[in-house]
Task: structure prediction
Amino acid sequence: MLTRRQALKTVTLVTAAFAAGPAAVAQPTSAPAGAAAAPSGPYKLPPLPYAFDALEPHIDARTMEIHHDKHHATYVANLNKAVAGYPMLKAKTAEDMLQELGAGGVGVGLGMSQEMAGLPVELRTAIRNNGGGHHNHSLFWQMMKKDGGGEPNGELAKAVEKSFGGFSAFKEGFAKAGLGQFGSGWAWLVLREGKLAIQATPNQDNPLTQGARVLLGLDVWEHAYYLKYQNKRADYIAAWWNVVNWDFVADRYAKFTN
Ligand code: MN
Result:
């Protein structure tokens, strides 16, 4: 029930929206914020492949909106800022750079890997954080879908069975990795030397830098779940299984094993 005051306020807001012109009303929901946040540079914020509320009730619309339009957009903007003045990097994707970041070997002393990786030394941290943030989120949106969930099938299901002893055991191990990641980071299902493995990484580090291929990833930064789940990361992880896009994961598995 609306009070008279609320009703008046609603009328005022609606009027104001129309006064701004039909174009303002007809804009697709994700484009203006993304476009505004990535002014110029080679990297672009990809549109979310579904509506903000598509993953409800498991992931709420407001979280998706902020996560995509603000967090992901900021990684893109900062990556563009970082590479400005380095024209030799413009043809490289964030994925290329994350791979090159590890070309000298992760854990090798800085003096050695910098030269070998072929990326400007002073950009390595920005590429790791913002290139990682951009690439990880670009994948993450596609790893989820409306009415997702269930289990993988086909070759991927066989590989899960072989590596983990079954889907339930895989889920348990993956959830444990996500829950056990102290602070911000990701849980991953990766393909490493032809075998499936579970791992977690801190911050925006992508296993690609360590020579593995990502099949599935779960963002366990608080920004991914705090509005709805607050401190209950385990509840977020449990709900997230309902939106996993196994077709996308299976396609990646096929791509990296063929
Ligand atoms: Mn995130």
